[in-house]
Write a structure and sequence with these properties.
Helix 1 runs antiparallel to helix 2 (35-54). With 70 residues, this protein is mostly helical. The protein has helices at 12-31, 35-54.
């Protein structure tokens, strides 16, 4: 679902923003009395944190449109 090697996730601020938004959303759901949705969104945030920060990224991933240099 989340490919940490995709160029979209290269900037640190984007990788931080996704779990932070999930945590804020989960807190809001708890505040409004919806624990089921808080658990779902919290799990999404934990999954995003794992994929974007804990899972090993492949080194040297090239853009597929780049031509190999000889």
């Amino acid at each position: 679902m989340i490919d940490p090697n995709h160029p979209f996730y290269e900037p640190l601020w984007r990788r931080l923003l996704i779990p932070v938004i999930c945590a804020i959303w989960a807190a809001f759901e708890l505040y409004t009395g919806e624990p089921f949705w808080a658990i779902i969104v919290g799990a999404m945030g934990l999954y995003a944190t794992y994929k974007l920060f804990l899972e090993k990224r492949k080194p040297g991933v090239r853009n597929p449109t780049e031509e190999p240099k000889e």
